[in-house]
């Protein structure tokens, strides 16, 4: 439905987005994952026709939207990273105004306002001025405003930044419902791994303006399929044990972990037996051992050598 | 467009303080400036030793025929007290066919007063002399009668009609201050565009099906109306509360205001195009408003300035032409046809600023 091809944005000398390719199919929920400054917001702004790309194309249903922005604008719902609301107006007035400029009127408008306020759970505070809201409430109204005209594609730029876990969970559930029950196509930007894992079918991982990996969650994790992480806990740690573990050929890397060790091993190699017998000879008791399933965080770490959030 | 327009009023209603305060400031400044000028009508304490009440009243009546001086009857003792207390520098002593001063210390006012008093005395005494010689008692009345129905009259029109100097000064302050504070209000109102661009609400407007031109129009029309209303309300208050007479050229006044406000709104767009960050606004607004008002002659008449460059500079300030237009309509009773020059200059400036301004604003985001 939406294709992005060779998208590039240069700010003076700084290349914020470089040769980005991505696509959205109808009804999909797609994550765009990357650390601060990766170029996520810039990419999204170009897709939603707010800034002009230095190079590249964005096509909606085969048509280049850069030539005709109005072909895509009405079906887009954009939730900006920064709260974009009129602080001196109430939630109700904000939603109503943005509904009006989307051409909604009268009864239909009132109905829609009721629906979205219900959806974001702010019916009871709707008459209060936005400036009196908490961060989480502002975030929710920020989303509500983008939903009023029932967009086909919902683009969300880090909609949960800086809010409490409850509000966050509420928002995630809401987006999931919109995607699964209403069939809304979602492009979800975040640097929270857990959110993207919970919400999205497919993921693009972005760093330094480039897409460094993409695919379904499973596909991405299989990047790590040649290795596994094994966590063991022991009753007492010792440097002799650490050295001995390093000696084992099946183990590629050993690091100290709380109350034990973290082992990176080749997939399929049965190291546990070796580790247990080693412990026995050194008179150390292994209190727990488990094989970790890789997360997208691990994938990112693997690809860039950096953590997603520092 | 109307939704955008309406929104601005709701926002104003929530935070009317700024706009109202500029209206308030207009008044404060006019009171301070115009008020102090009105007070410059100087009081001369006048007393007599020999004259009877009616005789003295006659003299005072004659002396008080002045725009700048008031002669007030006092007693000799009171005048002496006031002089000794340093409250006044001199008093006027009038007697039959002569006058002199009781002087505490020299004052340059005394020269002006003396000129006036001498003239009045000479005229009056001459008329009395003629009356005595001819036996006609009512010389004064006859002379006046004759002047009212002259055999031959010479009209001496001042170059610019019939406004008195005092009127011109009073109105200069009122018009100047009103137009000056209107610039403030308009610039601050229009800067809401920049603020919305920063806080992201502008992007929301752009993403909506409303055309960009209509979004701008909604905002600009609102700014226009705010500026226009501020001027109209302040003129109305000056008229109804302080009795300023704005003359009969109502249509011309309104038309000058319309093009003036339009040119300032356009200038605002131009400035918003130049600055891109809202932080710069706080500095730019007062500098531009005050600078323009000074150079454009809102604070003092530009006729007082002889520097050619300053004069040339004043001509590119919309406020100068706004003042010319309004003074023409209010003081010199000029109609629309006579005001075509300031009107068309303001319109031209408006169109130019608006064109350049919109292009500057959109230079980054053209899509
Ligand atoms: N208007 C701009 N002018 C100049 N540079 C910009 C502009 N907008 C973004 N950049 C730069 O482009 C790069 C990418 O920024 P972007 O906001 O797209 O990152 P992001 O992935 O959204 O980060 P975050 O998670 O912090 O929101 C950054 O280096 C940023 O400094
Ligand atoms: Mg961002």
UniProtKB/TrEMBL annotation, chain A:
GO CC aspect terms: plasma membrane
Organism lineage: Bacteria, Bacillati, Bacillota, Bacilli, Bacillales
Keyword ATP-binding: yes
Domain of life: Bacteria
Species annotation: Natronobacillus azotifigens
Subcellular locations according to the entry: Cell membrane
Similarity remark: Belongs to the ABC transporter superfamily. Drug exporter-1 (DrugE1) (TC 3.A.1.105) family.
An annotated Gene Ontology molecular function: ATP binding
Topology versus the membrane: Peripheral membrane protein
SUPFAM superfamilies in the cross-refs: P-loop containing nucleoside triphosphate hydrolases
Protein name listed in UniProt: ABC transporter ATP-binding protein
Main location: membrane
Database matches in PROSITE patterns: ABC_TRANSPORTER_1, ABC_TRANSPORTER_2
From TrEMBL, chain B:
One Pfam family this sequence matches: ABC2_membrane_3
Domain ABC transmembrane type-2 per the UniProt entry, residue ranges: 136-364
Domain of life: Bacteria
Topology in membrane: Multi-pass membrane protein
Transmembrane segments: 171-195, 216-238, 250-271, 283-302, 339-361
Keywords tagged on the record: Cell membrane, Membrane, Transmembrane, Transmembrane helix, Transport
Main location class: membrane
InterPro entries xrefs: ABC-2_transporter_component (IPR051449), ABC2_TM (IPR013525), ABC2_TM_bact-type (IPR047817)
Localization: Cell membrane
GO cellular component assignments: plasma membrane
GO molecular function, a single term: ABC-type transporter activity
Family, as annotated: Belongs to the ABC-2 integral membrane protein family.
Protein name, UniProt field: ABC transporter permease
Organism name: Natronobacillus azotifigens
